[in-house]
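Ticket reopened. Same input as before:
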Amino acid sequence: MAMKRVAASALRAFTSSGNSTSSLLTRHLHASPGSKKIVGVFYDAKEYAAKNPNFLGCTENALAIRQWLESQGHQYIVTSDKEGPYCELEKHIPDLHVLITTPFHPAYVTAERIKKAKNLQLLLTAGIGSDHVDLKAAADAGLTVAEVTGSNVVSVAEDELMRILILVRNFVPGHHQVITGDWNVAGIAYRAYDLEGKTVGTVGAGRIGRLLLQRLKPFNCNLLYHDRLKMDPELENQIGAKFEEDLDKMLPKCDIIVINMPLTEKTRGMFNKDRIAKLKKGVLIVNNARAAIMDTQAVVDGCSSGQIGGYSGDVWNPQPAPKDHPWRYMPNQAMTPHISGTTIDAQIRYAAGVKDMLDRYFKGEDFPPQHYIVKDGELASQYR
Amino acid sequence: MAMKRVAASALRAFTSSGNSTSSLLTRHLHASPGSKKIVGVFYDAKEYAAKNPNFLGCTENALAIRQWLESQGHQYIVTSDKEGPYCELEKHIPDLHVLITTPFHPAYVTAERIKKAKNLQLLLTAGIGSDHVDLKAAADAGLTVAEVTGSNVVSVAEDELMRILILVRNFVPGHHQVITGDWNVAGIAYRAYDLEGKTVGTVGAGRIGRLLLQRLKPFNCNLLYHDRLKMDPELENQIGAKFEEDLDKMLPKCDIIVINMPLTEKTRGMFNKDRIAKLKKGVLIVNNARAAIMDTQAVVDGCSSGQIGGYSGDVWNPQPAPKDHPWRYMPNQAMTPHISGTTIDAQIRYAAGVKDMLDRYFKGEDFPPQHYIVKDGELASQYR
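Engineering reply: fixed in the latest deploy. New output:
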């Protein structure tokens, strides 16, 4: 079984805590037993950083924990420069203790980086989704990986409902007409529908999937869900969705499919050419989960042929999406950069969640159990 | 009191009905007592007309009532050409009996046109909203004006919820980044919010407003409504919205305002410079009702200054919106052409509703009471 680096460290941190004079004195030393080097990788906000005091998830505002960390003698390095052998992140890999990053601008934590990171103990995701980490390598190295479970589930579920409606209503070409000086109602209306009466299936009905189903209920749709587990009958009845044990029996019934699963070795490439060919012609797909659940080219081909009537999501492989990513140019897409989980409200919640976990880490306390992705060398169940 | 042209006509129609041989013989004569000249003004679908068999609301498919009308000996002229003294519609004004049009491509029925239309008896709106008709002139001339009440209320309410989310999430600049090859999460996220916890007020809580409130309920917002009448307590409790008797007390509380009133002399220009100045800074406004409820320039100024944080709707003044309409070019708009009520599902419903009213008109029967806008020289209550 893997060494528990974090446990040993927490013990050291714990024994050195409670002495604020000492902490203040060691603020600039970075080598005292209790002092940690914490690196945060976020997106740059530049001119936008000052536009909203609650815009916490960017490099400039850095979750608003700098003063708190530094007042306890810790070092806090923040950067958006995360790719390639000469990036800012790479410089700090050999001696950082904690790496914080987000799904919106993820620091990819490979087995190679983990090997180099001799002091690394803790990987925190400010948000939800830790697939940017090689979780097996992290488990083997005895690291702890945790995220702020729940911090942006409402944000993502709301965004999914927006994307369903955007596709069902054919909003994007309508708005495009406005900005290009055009007016052609027919060019929009010939494939604009009500959501009412349509069959919506969610692949995965965890926290986000359930919140989506609850919000869909008043729309009078036919709601289906596929998951490893059936909900308890009371919840299922309250949500008004029908369990489908066999994914491939559910999918061809759906007018609209929403992806609500983590990216794992089981779900990677799940929507490939063959599976897409078996969907209802003109199906609408919303995917705010992870892009690699889809076969990139199969989605392009489906949108081009009309087999997929519309595709919307905010997740890309890789991120940031390169300028020549084919999803930027395929027809009937309503894509955005990765934003659904980084609303201002979500940022306030995940900044607070990261601060709480750091505080517990310094004190040698456990995190809330639902936050762990890797603990004591073991992956959380959904990643196994 | 105004002459009841329609009643006399219905009587003639009634006495000549039930004789299909005679009807078939008079099919191309157009002058027999029971034969009517019906003109439909719709938008052209061109290449889109054949793309969907249920795309009924365009000139090409013309509500799918041509065969039915002609088999009864009526003449059915359909056009999209509706403006100016030499347009196709103008040619038929002197002798048409029935004019059917839609809010999406409205035939404007002015007092002058009513004066010229000596045979006109019935004005039907395929959809909801008859403000394209000079209702007072229509009432004075003894015409009947009716619409397919309820035919697209679900369609419009769903679309309003989409627009609320599009504004709250700052979707449009996000999508714009995708198509321009850009990636700047911060440029979207600094003003993207959850809908949860925000205060949403609807100005008007008729059918559409209530359907919107019902769909908003699971989003855990603070829901307010202003209307002439308070809902009965049971419905209010079920919807979870609070009645605000005084509009100007409600508006400054709202993060999001949705307009759900007909255009009348009372509501025209209601959102002028002064009223907009009193709203919460950065307020989001959704208006699928009618554009003339807003002062056009005051909306442009509000969006430019940031007093209005976002404006979305599908209604314009006039329609089609000219290429230089300033709402096309103002910042933070998420506009489309007039499409929310012309989904394929709505088209099926309003085509059926128009056919039913024509059938009743030919038979001299009353329409469903909620469909009347002008009956027996009297305006429906919401237009008074």
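Chain A touches chain B through 72 residues (CB under 8 Å). Residues 170 and 192 of chain A are 5 Å apart (CA to CA). Please confirm and we'll close it.
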